Amino acid sequence: MSPTVRVGVGLGYAMTGLRQNQTITDRLVFPAAVTTSIRAVSTDGTVHHLLLTVGAQWDVASAFTVGATVTSPGLRIGGSTKITYSNIVYEAGGAENDLGFRDPDAKLDYKIPIRAMAGAAFRYSRGAIEADVRYYGAESEYELLSSDSTGLQITADSAGVPTISNPVFSPTVNRARSIVSFALGANFSLSPAVRLHAGVFSSPSPVSAPSQSTFRAVDITGVSGGVSLGAGRLTASLGVSSSWGTTTERQVGPTLGGLSGTTDVSIKTFTGLYSISYTF
What we know:
The chain is mainly β. The protein folds into 2 domains: 135 residues, no CATH class; 104 residues, no CATH class. The chain is built from no helices and 18 strands. The protein has a 16-stranded antiparallel beta sheet that branches. Strands 16-17 form a two-stranded antiparallel sheet. Strand 14 and strand 15 form a beta hairpin.
């Protein structure tokens, strides 16, 4: 728009995948009876979105620049998932409850919320400093996994007399809370050919009501560092990044035996980055 003001528009494509495989076996022993349960769940699917982004950047002064972008919520353009489920319960007296479900064309609908980012950079003779703030909007409760198919349930009493029914699929719901994350980065020139880089960032979890959600909530903190080399046509860079976070303990159970336990999830990542470029 002018030598100091730039605007831009971008169209993006996002593909989100969700895969899970879970098998649970439990046995409850009473003084006069034994109950055994075997449950298996499997899902494998993807969902596709279009994302529209608009942004602007303004050179407030020769050494100071600010910018911002806004990305629309994801527009779902397709996707599907396969769901299989089975649950078998045996009673020592002969009673049995067998539930099976399969839908190769179920629906996965993971929603991508609105996103807004703003940043400011200050440049000086030996380097630069940049700070960024990112906002992700909330999503009210919606059906993450759904299906129009019905299951097959066979219940047999101790005499072996079966009762057949077709229960409907209970959708898995999801919701997300709004979050704000921060990032701060800087670089410093040791010489015309060597520049150091460092940064810190946060990434809060968008999981809402983690004690009830399918997903666990992990707030991530990270650091990065690196060095770039070269001042002519040939340049290179080498860097590392690490992030970490731990959930709060979450109760699991009770099992058929009436026992409860607690678990937590820790995430630790370490990434190596490198690049080589030659300018013609």
